[in-house]
Fold this sequence. Notes:
Layout: E1 2-6, E2 10-14, H1 18-31, H2 47-58, H3 64-83, E3 87-91, H4 97-109, E4 114-119, H5 122-135, E5 140-145, E6 163-167, H6 177-188, E7 196-202, H7 207-213, H8 220-236, E8 245-252, E9 257-264, E10 268-272, E11 277-281, E12 286-293, H9 297-306, E13 309-316, E14 322-329
Parallel strand pairs: 2-5, 3-4, 3-6, 4-5, 6-7
Antiparallel strand pairs: 1-2, 7-14, 8-9, 9-12, 10-11, 13-14
Helix pairs in contact: 2-8, 3-4
Amino acid sequence: MRSLAQSGDIRIESFLSETDDRSLANDVLDGLTRPFKEIPAKHFYDARGSELFEQICELPEYYPTRAERSILVARADGIVRRTRAGELVELGSGSPDKARILLGAMSRAGTLRRYVPLDVSESALESAAEELIDEFDELTVHGVIGDFERHLAHIPDPGETPRIVALLGGTIGNFLPGTRRRLLREIGRLLGPGDRLLLGTDLVKDPAVIEAAYDDADGVTAEFNRNVLHVINSELDADFCPSGFDHIAFFDRRHEWVEMRLRSRRPCSVLVADLGLRVEFAAGEELRTEISAKFTRARVEEDFHAAGLELDTWYTDPDELFALSLAARA
Ligand code: AVJ
């Protein structure tokens, strides 16, 4: 563990190291040597990918961020009244926008103590911590730089107040059903009896609306999708030609998830020099880069049940685009 910052109110620790590079290396080795090629969605988010994602959140077609925000704004005070929480643990925190709404409600309720963001991006975490410290006098921040699939054990023990552990944005949808349930179970271990999980899930709706959100007119999502190839090029000394791949996004009705893929226009041979790996793509061959599951209330409840959790309160926006679930350990 590296301690990166230690001022009066901010403490940031990092649990990323060489094992971090290994995570991408392992995923590339596994994912590009299969008959159906695949790279996990978490590798989009280097500095450029995070910037592109922030741009996606502003696109007219990409409704989840706005819908979730509107629920948070309408419900944050109620959530805090219900839980009496004074601590927010946010997994995959990214920008401080969502935390600010919940911390503001804790501050109004007089319970606010601590914000514990966990994110892979050191720069995002530092700037979020500094912004929020300036806004809330009573706040301390204990940031954890890490990956919530591997570093949940480094979340500090709870303080004196109940805590909310938040996984927002629909990020849970990036995981296949079995992994999703395992992850929810692990997250549940962070919850004491009075603590609650706050989970953001995008909802099943007209496929045309969903597909537009993942294939915007300006091509920002296409660039975001191709960014994973830039990440592999720079981190593993590969020679992908990102412009040789088309962006594909479609709603799979049977699985109720969106898939993003990259389709090679021509036959191409890629060298991943750091791994001594050569990978061949046929013309038209596709690489799956993301699944983003869309939920119904019943499906969320089933997942909670399988993970040893139970739904406490279900909140949606008026158009039922997105949902926030408050859940407890069963
Ligand atoms: C950040 C994972 C919630 O799945 O909607 C946005 C990522 N991918 N556009 C999502 C994403 C394409 C986003 N999550």
